[in-house]
Design brief:
Layout (H helix, E strand, L loop, with lengths): L1 E8 L2 H8 L1 H14 L4 E9 L3 H16 L5 E5 L9 H13 L3 E5 L4 E3 L5 H34 L11 E5 L5 E5 L4 H12 L5 H10 L12 H8 L7 E4 L3 E4 L8 H12 L20 E2 L6 E6 L2 E6 L11 E2 H16 L3 H15 L3 H30 L5 H51 L3 H11 E7 L2 E6 L3 H9 L7
Parallel strand pairs: 1-2, 1-3, 3-4, 10-14
Antiparallel strand pairs: 4-5, 6-7, 8-9, 11-12, 12-13, 14-15
Helix pairs in contact: 6-9, 7-8, 10-13, 10-15, 11-13, 12-13
């Protein structure tokens, strides 16, 4: 009788317990040699390191034994070596056995099954199948518990994200830390995209030129950029298919605010006035027609750039406006900014600081309140954990409440950070805005076209063109600076 050998291992423990592939092969070959009616025809040997690959191999076995017209023997060391998923694999084998097309031989279990097997042998087989299935399910449960423990500890069980690397600790365990070669590039990637000046493709090209590569050192695919931009892991939250988001314990590369800004850009909710374009037209995509709302597009004639309404709605008459004419009122505002005396700037910052000193005590009280609330929340987390260990709360209720408390701690941390920085950043930002305003004319003239576009998008709000006249307002806080520049005597008021 033609005999097919099937040898399989699925875990390292099975290999070390005498069930390695060579050990199984040796036992099965010896069994065939001892049974005169059996003749070795083919061997199927596979290490089940991946379930899908195993299923492909097992399907090959079924197809092969089904192709014989005469009865064949399928020889496997033990019942639990036959297949990993018994509910999927056994029906096919059972059908072939009942049809009298195969015999199942399990030498180590001292069991042979054929079409006319007695009830005692079938009972023996069913018991072995149940025990093997129980063992498989127990392994699955242990794996799930291990992953659940990692999740509750804020640990990540998968490969590190681009921008992070695995390191070996002294206790033999591993940890995930920011990659010194790629971490700063990931930060730059988010910062650039949040400006709204880059599409996924242009950002991909730029980051590739800056040296961003995958963990294998290969050039990233364009789709990797989009995956990175929508991955919450970088601001401190890991994602589980079953439980959703949960806070991880590793160092965040970006802030939640920066991540949210990038999501606004991705979803199209944020206006992207300075999208990177192939030709450096200064105003392309920045202005709209006041009459019909269509964009103004550029054209070159004899070395001069003209802009006109695209008239997509068929309402306006096409009027060509030279770029210099549109730029003139903007430069006029820049010149007004230049007129702010440095002494006025110093006095303004000084008076703002004096007015703000009265809020220092309030800030200190708020910081203390936040810290007390954070410590109280941490105590509640510890009590919750004790309740879970005592089994006085269900796993689902524990997970739900733990997530609520972790979210509260995250919000408290953000609030604490804002209060801690508020006083210092207030004065720094006021001084920075005034300095920038006074020097913006020189900065604009010395900048490249894409940088000029970024400056215009940063300070102009709702720019429209009516006929040949550019109309706009200034974004905050530059509208206040313009008021100061045009009426410096009103500073005291």
């Amino acid at each position: 009788m033609k005999t097919i050998i099937l040898a399989r291992v699925s875990t390292q423990e099975q290999k070390e317990a005498g069930n390695s592939l060579p050990a199984q092969q040796a036992r099965l070959r010896g069994y065939i040699d001892r049974v005169p009616r059996l003749e070795l025809d083919k061997e199927f040997i596979f290490d089940e390191s991946a379930y899908k690959e195993h299923r492909k191999e097992f399907d090959k076995v079924i197809d092969y034994v089904s192709g014989f017209k005469e009865v064949v023997a399928l020889c496997c060391d033990k019942v639990d070596r036959l297949t990993r998923d018994f509910l999927v694999g056994l029906p096919d084998l059972e059908r072939l056995r009942r049809d009298g097309k195969i015999e199942l031989h399990f030498p180590s279990d001292n069991l042979v099954l054929h079409r006319d097997s007695p009830a005692t042998d079938l009972f023996h087989f069913n018991i072995a199948v149940s025990l093997a299935q129980y063992y498989s399910n127990a392994i699955s449960d242990n794996t799930k518990r291990a992953f659940e423990t990692k999740r509750r500890n804020g640990e990540w069980a998968g490969k590190p994200r681009i921008g992070y690397i695995n390191i070996d600790l002294e206790n033999g365990k591993k940890d995930i830390v920011p990659d010194p070669e790629r971490g700063h590039l990931i930060q730059k990637l988010f910062e650039l995209y949040a400006t709204g000046s880059y599409s996924i493709t242009t950002l991909w090209n730029k980051m590739t030129k800056m040296g961003l590569r995958g963990l294998d050192g290969q050039k990233l695919a364009r789709s990797n950029i989009d995956l990175i931009l929508k991955d919450p892991f970088y601001y401190g939250m890991a994602h589980s298919k079953k439980h959703g988001l949960y806070p991880h314990r590793y160092q965040a590369l970006i802030t939640r605010e920066l991540f949210d800004k990038c999501q606004e850009v991705r979803s199209g909710r944020s206006k992207k006035p300075s999208k990177e374009i192939s030709k450096p037209f200064l105003f392309k995509g920045l202005f709209t027609c006041k009459d019909c709302g269509c964009l103004y597009s550029p054209e070159m004639h004899r070395g001069i750039t003209y802009y006109s309404c695209t008239n997509a709605k068929g309402i306006c008459k096409r009027v060509y406006v030279p770029e210099g004419m549109l730029l003139a009122p903007i430069k006029n505002v820049f010149e007004k900014f230049r007129q702010i005396p440095y002494e006025v700037q110093k006095r303004l910052v000084s008076e703002l600081r004096a007015l703000n000193d009265g809020e220092a005590e309030f800030h200190n009280r708020e910081i203390e309140r936040i810290r007390i609330d954070y410590d109280r929340t941490q105590s509640r987390i510890q009590v919750l954990l004790d309740m879970r260990l005592d089994k006085s709360i269900t796993s689902d209720d524990y997970d739900k409440k733990l997530q609520e408390l972790k979210d509260k701690q995250y919000r408290l941390n953000v609030e604490l950070d804002e209060y801690t920085k508020a006083d210092h950043e207030y004065h720094v930002h006021v001084n920075t805005v005034l300095n920038l305003s006074r020097r913006i004319a020189d900065i604009f003239e010395s900048s490249e076209p894409m940088e000029k576009r970024a400056i215009l998008g940063f300070i102009l709000q709702n720019p429209t063109v009516s006929g040949k006249k550019l109309e706009f307002t200034m974004r905050k806080p530059f509208d206040t600076v313009l008021e100061l520049a045009t009426c410096p005597t009103g500073l005291r008021r």
